[in-house]
Specification:
The structure is a homodimer of 235-residue chains. Chain A is of the alpha+beta class and 235 residues long. Chain A folds into two domains: 137 residues, Nucleoside Triphosphate Pyrophosphohydrolase, CATH 3.90.79; 84 residues, Orthogonal Bundle (Arc Repressor Mutant, subunit A), CATH 1.10.10. Helix content of chain A is 26%, strand content 27%. The first copy, chain A, is built from six helices and ten strands, in the order ββββαβββαβααββαα. In chain A, the strands form two sheets. In chain A, strands 1, 2, 3, 4, 5, 6 and 7 form a seven-stranded mixed beta sheet that branches. A three-stranded antiparallel beta sheet of chain A has the order 8-10-9. The termini of chain A are far apart. In chain A, 33% of the residues are buried. At the A-B interface, strand 5 and strand 6 of A face strand 5 and strand 6 of B. Chain A binds a DNA duplex (30 and 30 nucleotides) through helix 4.
Chain lengths: 235, 235
Amino acid sequence: MTRYSGQTRLLVAVDCIIFGFDGQDLKILLIQRGFEPEKNKWSLMGGFVQPDESPDEAATRVLKELTGLEGVYMEQIQAFGHPGRDPQERTISIAYFALIDIHKYEKQISDQYHAEWFTLNNIPPLIFDHTDMIKMARKKLRYKAAIHPILFELLPGKFTVPQLQNLYQGIYDTVLDKRNFSRKLMSTGLLVKQQEKDKAGSKKGAFYFKLDKKQYKKKFQAFLNFIPNPDNLLN
Amino acid sequence: MTRYSGQTRLLVAVDCIIFGFDGQDLKILLIQRGFEPEKNKWSLMGGFVQPDESPDEAATRVLKELTGLEGVYMEQIQAFGHPGRDPQERTISIAYFALIDIHKYEKQISDQYHAEWFTLNNIPPLIFDHTDMIKMARKKLRYKAAIHPILFELLPGKFTVPQLQNLYQGIYDTVLDKRNFSRKLMSTGLLVKQQEKDKAGSKKGAFYFKLDKKQYKKKFQAFLNFIPNPDNLLN
DNA sequence: TTTTTTAGTGTTAAATAAACACTTATTTTT
DNA sequence: AAAAATAAGTGTTTATTTAACACTAAAAAA
């Protein structure tokens, strides 16, 4: 079969915005680029889409390369394709965000990528349009998390309500009333209270909860409205 | 400057899902493909991203080519990139949806593309993964329109409340209470009542309204909740 | 003039959201 | 051993929003 004639072929890459939450702050995993151009500058983890893989598969592969993790929640954000965004060669990059349990993150033995976590208000200057990508990722995350119970993907198997509240507060850069937050949360029926307490976070200790996986799957598409007046807070 | 070595370059295309509303039904503009492969089959309007243009620009260009329209509301949906989605040659396609005022649609003189409007439950078999693209476009449109006053982009300068209600009902495949709908709509402050009536749609005639452009810009980001219980209706 | 058709409008009840402060458990300090 | 410090946990009231509901008005057609 003949190919389309007279058309230019372009490099196609994926870049991953990897979010993690340490119980206190929302963070992004960045790497120090090991090759030219812009060697040693900070950037998102990325890679080129290979002939035999879809962009989704490329993003999954790239995430695994850096973190060792599989089966992670990922979502395509959008394609970034300004000519000149990569000065070396025209490249279309498809951005993805991933939500990982930061505790499961395995520092790859080789430490080949020199990766580090950065809190959102501490992002260093990045190569190309990666800063824009992060901005879009945050926007999309806010948008989605205001409506769907997506942020549980960032938490470990067991977590406390105050931790979860911290997470929401961090993402929306706001302060929530803990009584209303807790009530709304419990009313979703997504959480199962554990006997055990987390004693690290406070003197009194806070009860652990686990996600009810079944309910989670069932209610994932429901409009949950965790965030009061989201229109003030989005963007 | 050297190029990235050892990587495969791919074709990158854009495809446009062009929505229009005739006052009764939501429709999509499709073309009969004029070249191989799949010549004469129905498809979305698309084109390859050129070396000097961004995907957004390519989509804008492609839309203009087909409809003659500029300054149209467009939004990127996502990139589709399964290897094999185009059997002729590996192509990554970035899908966009556009909302146009169907009355402004100018049949291009050449009629080079053999375009036709199809109602959503009447879409013919399409080439490649274009059916999936339309599915995603509808999903994204439903999602966005449940929250933002985006559907005005589909309407002409003046329109009636019953027309608008038809539009919402069509998109969400549901029936709305006209008292509640009308009240909610008016409370947005987005509409300006005209003296004139549309006499075409009914015996009594319905008053025309126009969009208050200033308010529209201001409130575009607000969470409006036009649709009761959106969680039942999305997807 | 009667019938038909669709536009237009108000009220009430139920559900949800928002605002608000004290008690409890535990550790640390004195 | 008692007191102080810290963060967790919990209930009520009011305001706002949403949902359900049915009749009148205008114009054309019969």
